[in-house]
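=== Structural record ===
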Amino acid sequence: MRTLKYLFNYTSAVKHVWVNYDPGVPTADANNEGWMRFGASSSYQNLRTMLHEMNHTFGTGTISWWTGTAISGGKYQPTNANLILQQINNNATAQLSGDSQHWWPYGLNQNAEVSSSWDYVYNCLIIEAMRKDGLPAAGTYNP
């Protein structure tokens, strides 16, 4: 599975995930306990959606650390993920944006956000940096 290739190559995260098909789910969803559901729409049954939902199993938008520590004023506050974004974008002032559930850029929130396979790599690198920042549901950071 290509999703695992990206996660194994660009993160040290380990998570047991239960993937389910549920035609009642309009798109896809996941929680930090590792439950992931995909609906009947084939437009969401893809690598982009899988990586995006993996972010939720790791804790983005699904745990109190996200809204209580990471996101404030619509911006991601911890240091490491923003440093990675700055390197990716070659912009010393770049900062991740976020809300109660999602983050961007490279959060893979919509199919239109993917322009190349590098977007998947960047997503994983940012998740790894979020783990270094303390994203607890993604397990202990091990460089």
The mean pLDDT is 94. The chain has one domain: 2-138. The beta strands are 18-21, 28-30, 35-38, 71-72, 75-76, 97-98, 103-104. The first strand starts at residue 18 and ends at 21.
